[in-house]
Amino acid sequence: MRTKSARRPFSLALRLTFFISLSTILAFFAFTWFMVYSVENHFAEQDVSDLQQMSSAMHRILQSPADADEKKISKMKGSIASYRNVAVLLLDPRGEVLFSSVQGAALRPAVNAAGFGTHRRAQDVFLWTVNDPASPMHSGSDMDRETYRIIASSGTATYQGKQQDYVMLIGLSINFHLHYLDGLKKNLFAIAAAISLLIVILIRIAVREGHLPLRNVSDAIKNITSENLDVRLDPSRVPVELEQLVSSFNHMLGKMEDVFTRQANFSADIAHEIRTPITNLVTQTEIALSQQRTQKELEDVLYSSLEEYSRMTRMVSDMLFLAQADNNQLVPDRVMFDLRVEVMKVFEFFEAWAEECNITLRFSGIPCLIEGDPQMLRRAINNLLSNALRYTPEGKTVTASMIEKERDVELMIENPGKPIPEEHLPRLFDRFYRVDPSRQRKGEGSGIGLAIVKSIVAAHHGKVRVESDAVSTRFILSMPKTGNTSTVMGVIQEK
């Protein structure tokens, strides 16, 4: 069954272009809408103001007791003559037309639709807007149709020889305003569309130029190969947003360079370490075969060869052990044991060698229970102690001490001797690393004892470090503790 592949995410440039353009376009269209709304509101306020002025003037004319009906009508016609496209409709309480301008009939449907009556006071204003050009209140052909903004009011006046109530509707044609607004909307939105397209193009260019430092960093990274891992990118020459990325990349590059260097050195060192015993075996065999040898001479050659075979066997065994550690296959047993007891066992094992070298072994510590593999930790302590004995001058003392801390137990193995330069200390646990590269090991082990110590301690979730000064060199092993007892002082051998 074929699985559907995950869709590739959109590029950062596309995302930035989209969201910035969308935000800018929405803001621009909101501004356009606000402009249109402001113009519409301005026209509406202007229309209402004109209608209110005309309504007040009409009421004054109608309610003037000194004027006859003909004079009132003449005044009303003269009052609306100064306005364009104004319609006036005057009705009595029964709905009969008392006065109508030329376009006044177009306002008649608004009376029934709005439910006007004579109960309205003189200053009670009602606004009625006709928006449908097909409405019956429009008259004439399509070209003559009008949209009115209407103000309606009522009052009482002497008209046609009697006091009577009336309803007056005054309508102002707003077609000119509507045509202007339609044109304004079309122009504004056309301009908005063109500007929006221009915004997208400009933002796309700006985003592309903004990503130029990122592309430069990418190009610089492409040019880095295994041949020039010493190259570093300059964080000060990139924008601040990329500074952390460049620093992290440089840090990763440093680790890779260190791994490549160690791997190259490791390959050369292991080739050298294996070549030495093989060369010895070949040389001894050639010498033995060059002429007749006695049985005793042949036995000596075989014993010498056996030593070289044993050395190679130990080296291969150690390398397999480290390979397991590298692949996380080094799983120690988990049992409770007293670390002090295991240290004392190792000290007892090295007593004979120490006596032969005229070196004193001294140990002080407390019984302390930890969880782990006793055999593996004994091997780590063995490597540290043999290393200390190897570099301790004759007549001096190798000291081991164990102290309890809040969360762990520290075992320190200290030996006097020539100090190790500080620049070499971080590399001592590397495989086949030599403080003095010209120094050859002969009968001193495979050269990976400290690397095995570090792997064993790491498998037990502990740490190991080294310190060195003019007085002594100290290897300090820290292990998580699980218990403790009272302090006990023991001296293995003092000479």
Percent strand equals 15-25%
Number of helices: 11
Q: What is the 3D form?
A: rod-shaped
Please give the alpha-carbon distance between the first and last residues.
Answer: 77 Å
One letter per element, helices H and strands E, the order comes to HHEEHEEEHHHHEHHEEHEEHEE
Integer average pLDDT: 78
* Alpha carbon gyration radius: 52 Å
Roughly how much helix do the residues carry, as a percent range?
40-55%
* Low-confidence regions: 118-124, 131-143, 438-443, 483-495
Spatial arrangement of strands, main beta sheet: 2-1-5-4-3
Number of strands: 12
**What class would the helix/strand composition place it in?**
alpha+beta
What composes the largest sheet? 5 strands, antiparallel
